Each structure stands twice: as C-alpha cells, then as structure tokens.
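2024-03-11 09:14:02 DEBUG pipeline.ingest accepted 1 chain
2024-03-11 09:14:02 DEBUG pipeline.ingest length=406
2024-03-11 09:14:03 DEBUG pipeline.predict start
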Amino acid sequence: MTTTPFISRKGMTRRRMLGAALAAGTAVPLAAMASPAWADPSSPVPAPTRLTLPVPTGPHPVGTVQLHLVDRSRPDDIAGPGHFRELMATIWYPARDVERYPVAPWMPAGALQAFLADAGFSALEPLAPLTVGHVGAPVRRSGRRLPVVVFSHGAHSHQGDHTIMVQELASHGYAAVTVAHQYDTYTEFPDGRVAVPLYDRKAPTLPGDFAVDLRFVLDGVEQLAAGCNPDADQRELPAGLLGSLDPRRMGAFGWSKGGTATACAMLADERIRAGLSLDGPMQMNPPLAGDLDRPFMMMSAVFTRATGPEAAAFWSHLRGWRLNIQAEGAVHVSYGDNEALFPQVAKLFEWSGQQLQDVIGTLDPDQAVKIQQVYPLAFFHEHLRHRRGHLLDGPSPAFPAVTFLP
C-alpha cells in the first residue's frame, strides 16, 4: 500500500481536528467522533463482533462497481506536471443473480486503515461493516433505464459514510453514484495508492470544487448511458450497465459540505433535476448567484435557516418546489451511517447513554435510520420518477420527530 504523502499530521491531535472541524461546520468522520475525552482508543476492542449496517427495504438485491475517473480538463498542480484531477466513483444499482458475487466492504482496506489510524482507532479495523452491494453483479434490467442520483460526501470524510441511504436507493431501482473528492477524503486507487485529506486551503476542496467534480461525474453517467466505458483504466463493467442509466432523470444529494456542493452544482447544471442537502451549511464559494427553479429539499440539523444566514439566503433563492424538514434531537452526523454504527461502538467500549448522546444527539437511532431511508427516497421518487406519495405533504405520526419548517 502506498499512501499519498499530503502533509505531516505531527502536532494535530484528534481533539484539535474534531474541534476545528466542528468550528468550521465541516463533516466529522466516524473515527474522529469516536474519540471523546472519556474514551481510550488505544484499548483493545472487547469483543470481535463485526459492526453492521441495516438492510435496505427495497425489493431488489444491490450490485456495485468502482470507476476510476480522470478529468483531463483540470490539471492537478498538487500531483505535478502531466497529472490531472482524479476521482474514484462507486455505482450502486439494482442487480440480479448476485449469489456468486462477493459483497463490498464499507471502505476499501487501504482507505479504511488510513481513516481509522488517523484517529487512533485502528482497533476497529477488523470490525468494519460490510455492505449489501455485490461487486460486479449483473444489472437488473426492467425495460426502463435507471434514474441516477450522485452523492457528495462531507469534508474530511469518505464516499461510504452514507451507505445506508445509497443502498436504500439502489434497492428501490436507482443507480446511486458516490464520489470521492480527491484531497478531502480517504480513498484508494486501482494501483494501490491511498489518498488522505490534505489540510491545506490551496487544495481544490471548496464546495465549488466539489460541484465541478459532480458535474464531471454526470459526464461519466452520460458516457455510460451512451454505451461507453468512462473508466480511465478501461476495467470491465458489470453485465448490463452500459446503456442502463437514464441521463434525463438525474438528481444529486450530499451531506455537510457535500450538501452545499449539491446546491452549487445544481445552480450551474440543468442536468440535475432534483437536489437534496443533508445539513449543508450553504457557505458557498463562489458566492450564491441566481435562482433555482428545480425541486430542492433541505434536511436540517445544526445548520438551520434560523441560525445560519447562508442557509436562509439559499432558501430565498428557491423558486421551484422546496421543502425544509428537521428532526428533533438530530445533530450534524444524524443523517448518515453514524446513527447505525455509533450505538454499536458504544456497546463495545461500554459508553454510557449520555456519552453516546454527546456524539449522535438525542434522536432515537432506530428512528434516525428510518428517517434517512424514507425521506430521501420519497423525494427522489416524486421528482425523478413522478411517484407521488404523502410523506412529504406534512408531519407523519410514523415519524413524530420530523418537523416541517415553513
């Protein structure tokens, strides 16, 4: 394994990293969050039990494949002359005949090792969850092309941190494409290089940079739809993937900085028909300009319109269908895999209930998982597939914590 040598972390403690991330309104990785003052990450894990993610509720098994994408329109000054912006993307899709295909890990091994080592939680490495995505399984074809949603992760995080949502969408007939934003994530390239976040403002890690990444991935989706393989190494694709995606029904969603990037990309690219922000700060760079007339939904927790002028300003520029919901007791990490994983970590390290709440908030974890499964699905069902239900009409007795903000 070769780790890309971005910076020295000497002198950067986990507590300082966590504090700086929270102060900046950025995403906080699971490993960093699992290291509060009362936890000893150097202690051995008491029981060798693998962490698990909830099974998606859709009718279809899930397949997955990675793409190595190189944007030759964007020179990479950090990598040096002759290098261009590199991205890893992962496609999750409804599959068939999955039995003989292995399931994918939550993160590639090299990326996971770096991710946990940075926070001093290497003891969790053998316990990392598996996904339900079968690597390389054939695509389930139903006569219609698959609507597409692309996902943008948060700062210093990784493309697997919302696997619950991604698997849920794929199990219900979507092609969900997660993006690893180079220099602000943990990822692994086909040649064995492992990239980690670069804590330097000179790196292309602003929401606007993420947005350009998303738009480049949409180009790749269009190539796949046209029967072409966009993988830089021309690796074999799953049977049935070429020609199976629908470039006329593409949406986007993201968490934290990725939510802001989703808004930026949507403002710049009409191919994105619907957008969803998971507690995005909406601190845009370049600044917000223009109105948006396509459907947009905000799932707020910490970055609310009441407390964040940037979020309020973005909301005022929405001229089409719009919705803003908030779950009582949710914190910044509540709309993601953390709600399923941290309760299990808490049991391993014998945290108290209060200690767990300090990390994931007071929203019931089971309810939080169901919220992140059903609300994004309902949104994309309505605006990409024209399958209108009633969940987005107003408060639901099934989800009493969810408030509809005027």
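2024-03-11 09:14:41 DEBUG pipeline.report The chain is about 30% helix and 20% strand.
2024-03-11 09:14:41 DEBUG pipeline.predict end
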